[in-house]
Amino acid sequence: MDPITWTGSLGPLLNPLMLAAIAVFVLGFFAQLLLNFAGVQPGEVQINPDHTLSVARSPNDYALMAMKYSVLLFLACVAVFIVGGIVQPSLEQKGIIGAMGQRFLPVWIAMILIFAVSVTFKRRLGLYGKLFDSPIGMVGFFLVMFWMLTAIFAGLVATHGAIDVVSQMRNEVPGSFMPDPDEGEYLAYLLGGDNLGRDVFSRMVFGAREVLKIAPAATLFAFMVGITLGLPAGYFGGKLDTVLTFIANLVLAFPVILLFYLLVTPEIVASGIPTYMAAVLFLFPIIFFVILFNSRFFTQPFTRNIYIFLTVLIGGWLYLGLAWNSDPLGIISMPGNILIVFVSVVFVNSPTVFRIVRGIVLDIKTRDYVAAGQTRGEGPWYIMLWEILPNARGPLIVDFCLRIGYTTILLGTLGFFGLGVSPESPDWGSTINEGRRLLTIYPHPALPPAIALMTMVLGLNLLADGLREESLRD
Amino acid sequence: MAEDTAYDGPILEIDKLSISFFTRLREIPAVMDFSANVMPGEALGLVGESGCGKSTVALGVMQDLGVNGKIVGGTIKFKGRDLSEMSPEELRDIRGSQIAMIYQEPMASLNPAMKIGKQLAEVPVIHEGISEEEAMKRARQVVEDVKLPDPDRILKAYPHQLSGGQQQRIVIAMALMSKPSLLILDEPTTALDVTVEAAIVELVKDLGKKYGTSMLFISHNLGLVLETCDRICVMYSGEAVERGSIEDVFDEMQHPYTQALFRSIPLPGADKNASPLIAIPGNFPLPHERPNGCNFGPRCDYFEAGRCDAGPISMAQVEGNDRHATRCLRFQEIDWSAPPILADKKEKGVIGDTVLKVDNLKKYYEVAANSMFGGADKKVVKANETISFEARESETLAIVGESGCGKSTLAKVLMGLETATEGQVMLDNLSIESTEIQDRDTKTVSSIQMVFQNPFDTLNPSMTVGRQIIRALEIFKIGNTEAERRVRMLELLDLVKLPREFADRMPRQLSGGQKQRVGIARAFAGGARIVVADEPVSALDVSVQAAVTDLLMEIQRNEKTTLLFISHDLSIVRYLSDRVMVMYLGHVVELGSTDQVFSPPYHPYTEALLSAVPIADTSVEKKHIVLEGDIPSAMNPPSGCPFQTRCRWKSEVPGNLCETEVPPQRTMAAGHEIKCHLADDILAQMDPVIKIAAE
Amino acid sequence: MGLFILKRIGVMLLTALCLTFVVFFLTNLYPNLEKLAKTQGNARMTDAEVSSWLDNNGYGAPMLVRYGEWLGVVPGWTRTDEETGEIRGRCIDFGDDPAEAPRFCGMLQGDLGYSTVSDDEVSNVVGGRLLLTGKLMGWVLIVMIPAALVVGVLAGMREGSRLDRTLSTASIATTATPEYVSGVIFIVLLASSTAGLSPWLTENGWIEGRTLFLGSARSAMEDITFWNFTLPVMTLALYGMGYIARMTRASMAEVMTAQYIRTARLKGVKFRTIVLKHALRNALIAPFTVIMLQIPWLLTGVVIVETLFNYNGFGWTLVQAASNNDIELLMSVSIVAVIVVLATQLISDIGYVYLNPRIRIS
């Protein structure tokens, strides 16, 4: 049986349209660039006597309009393919794009819900709501949410298991049908099979889950460490600052890849170093919250004790489980190889966070409200955590988004060198690594995870950019 | 430029100019229906509070409104030619050669990576096409004209190597390089110290005369405009409300806003208890919340419903005066000479026992060159030198001085943010000079509190107003439950006359004056007995200043607080303080009651300071004393008397006493002390700086 | 200035010492040594045999002593074989007279040890590999820096314009594409015989070989050509380029809103002159630091690209050394990496001071 075509039954109709859209876009882009360099200005905004505005268009504007509409046309075609994929019955008619669109149905529904709710209430949602004023930010948010939701609904979206091997499907091209599918099994490998005969599409979908399990959490821990150390370094300055900055620079001067090669090896795991590092690094969040509540509520001992008790209880439980793998209840644990990856990523990221936090603190600590806190006798930790930190949130949130992206890239790098992950793992880095060996002959196994990783990091970067732009606009 | 000299009409004609800024949501009108003329050699002052559109007018004249700003109506003619019809090339030719501009921040106006000489020479090279060498010669000439020492060295220097005053002189020199016909000055002295400001103003006036330049002088300071300009235009919320010659507007004002403005600034002779300042009620309207009809209507005492808010009001000529116009419908009906209706006179608080006693206080800092290895060469900065004074209950003690005089360090030592190097600070009978704030008990901490200078910085932007006050109450252990503290917090809001709804607002929803009130409420949360107010109103607009000052005075009277009022503004100090302490480079140079300090004998520095403060009253005659040079750096103070480098009386002291010995503290009269070497008979010869002409 | 450099160098040496010790510590952990013993001696050694092998080969001493030996500040170990009476030691080459051998032989003496994988002196291995990577890096910098600066300046000179938006989005896209993604995409598009452009070009007879560019840079080790070197250079340059361009743009945009630019504009200076004479110098201070700090960052990229394109340079050596437990080679590789990092930091500090008159003259 022939493989499924990419565009299915709608293809003959829409393919020319899409090609035309791409052509117009490319033409428009170069026309605009040329016009820009040739010195043609964009159209002037004219003011009419009744204080309304009208735009006098120049060739530049027409080029831009053409680009805009070609993008819209292209997106419309994609939407039609997806709807067609959902509506039409057979795989041949759906085409690969349509079929994938159908598999992502839960993602689409959740996405439409999130966007509808957010746009409706955007004025009441603070910075998050303002994101929906910026096109760049919205695109970024869409991409990030797409992979988030894919990770959540991976079980529903994927057509096969991540490690199901069908040897006849080895290196088969996208859209190939299964040789003899079981009852209820999906009929085809939508994006083809890899060199072991596993479904590339499903591995890509499950890969999202692998990446999103670690990247945000590791970034969060890096932030905890960076903030807990950066605040006092910036606030107190002096010897403490000198020592901490020196250590941070030390870690930063370490070539990342070398550090990974040294840390993420079975021998190191055997020596127990990752556990000790985790024991230190994972302590920071608990310290952070204890100080946070103590400085705020020390005037009301009862309230404070409740908060601190809860923090120590929950934090301690997670700590025992994650760092020492000795959760008394046996629920929380982390396998050794994931732990070492997690710890290394936190370790590499925290010095940068430290430097950012320290820089912001140096700026904010000269403000009068900090002096006001000092003159009423507040302790230093209250000032750092409740007066300075909340006002540093803008740049920190932006950096958080960027850093998740960077962490994703790092995880990919680890996977690419086969460090720290189990050989079967569907994470994007390892999949790219496996695919690259036969890249020039069979490009299809390596490309989907590469594009997935790129779009997700791009989404995070665009999201950060949108957030930065909107937070500055006040 | 021969063809230009032939032109003898007005240099600048602005006719019914309207400028708007366009945002994503709406059009924001910044200037509406603004007209003004500047004749050759004339100086026009543009006065108004922040946000009134005065700087936008200047940028409109320069045709530099940015991407969002647009001229939506009217014309701006320069020497008879409409600027908005010129091509970009023509505009570029005019900018810098015929119209030049001077800004507020001299440091920011100069390119940090380019030598001064090059930046200056650039102007004639562009506009007159002369050679680099010739331009350099011209630059040297102009640098001499702006009275900078050692022009050759300065031409080879980078901007950061000069002091603020010198930088502003360079900016002026740059503006004058091509002998422009029109000079626009946008708050040119706001960032400078008073004595430096006086020198710059003097220079601008002289050069304006020398080069025959017309000037558009933008300022919020009426006194400064009086000193520099021939004509004045008062702006309010995007409109010109009154314009005319200085004498007409100052003495025969014809607009309620102008009148209110004058009544809200302290003039010599005003007294806080007998004739308190009258604040303008209400707030400045935001551009998109402007009322119908007269913009000033809602805040105006003469407001007549149905008439003033009916529709747009145009400028009306005032008969009998030269080009004097006002934007008021009722100006002919109002009795402008009627005295203001005063709120009931306030009783002066009775000054009680000594609360705070500072004796021989010294604060030295050690500044290390490099902290990495605990660098070897350390410098000692003497921020405070042998300061002694007392402050009593219900008393206002003003601490006056320019930047670097050590007043902020003194405040820090009092607050416990720094510890004294030597000497004593006694609160009641407890010595606190070496107790840091963490080690002070709650009572001591809550007794001394502070009001800060910058209203936009004084509140934590991410905490509600109520929360911030409640936090202070928590720390001062006031109230046993959250509910009690909330009640107390609401009472504090009442005390500072803010509506109780403000408790749940975020600071960014408040205006500058309102934020400052919250800052005051927070300072008084623990029943403070001593409040250190560090320039609490200097960042506020004039009309708001009066309200906040009066609030502070009222609370002081009721709570019997000792107020240490740090300021550089002598008008306000004279108005509200009981005693004044003048500081210079860490030394107290003069201390005495307000009358003693403001009348001779003066310390030479006090004399110069008094003369430097611009006064917005045409009946005041002032001696002009311009100090040479800048304030020396505290890192490297002069030997002997700290003021000897700039003192005009130095020659009256025999020998080189001034350069070798720090003068002793001398008691002139009961409670009046001066730190000076001058002999008694010379001090006695001094004339008063400010004379109020007989009415 | 001199004092400043001296202090910086002091800090650098301290950093280098700390970093090399960490590497030494991590590579000389017992599990690694055990593995070494089994690969060098006999894969089926017992635990006792392992420890005696280690003892005999100088690995028995405490960690700090061995670090000192490696550094060359502690005399190299010597051991007399009890049966043959032969003296062996760290500094005694096979067959040499023990009496004539130097007492110290460590990094400071220029003795970097012996690579077990390459079967050669480490110094010989590292030198050649470094040269290869140097060539790669050179080309990357030549492509990356001018392109990034031009893009950044063009985008930043009119903030918010369309040109700015287009270029900024493009730079964001490149920073979101790590080398192992862009490399894969480039190979598929330009160097695959079954996909991308090449089959189409071959069909039309427009190119001679089977692919437009070569997917492997192995041949570039002998002879660099446009066809075998473009893809690695592009891959490596692209990722760093976006970052530098964004920094340049931010710096440029900030400078363009500065008051002195307005002063210049209102002096009647032309826009082009404003950008070139007034803005550029100030705007390039920040990117310069970024560029210098980017170089060590490129190291990770170098490792990826050299692995992906089979170019046996420094990065490839690092992977080989690390995955084969070649301790001495790995130590030297780390030294080089650390030196590169610290040297670029030093240059960036000095350059920053030099470029910024505000710091230079005070």
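The mean pLDDT of chain A is 86.
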